[in-house]
Hints:
Layout: H1 11-23, H2 37-51
Amino acid sequence: METLIVHPENKEQLTALKAFMKAFKISFTEEKQGYDPEFVAMIKQGDEDLKAGKGVKVDVENLWK
């Protein structure tokens, strides 16, 4: 058989697709996609650095010069 990969655009479509496949006894698997763990660690480290006073403050007016 073939494998299909579908990309529902919203929760309603996802719910409808799941209901359809269950009604027709079509097996399917779900994969939850999350953020890359390295990226999450980097963001958390940045938050901790800011709380510790590490960082540079930039005035909005100076961004465009």
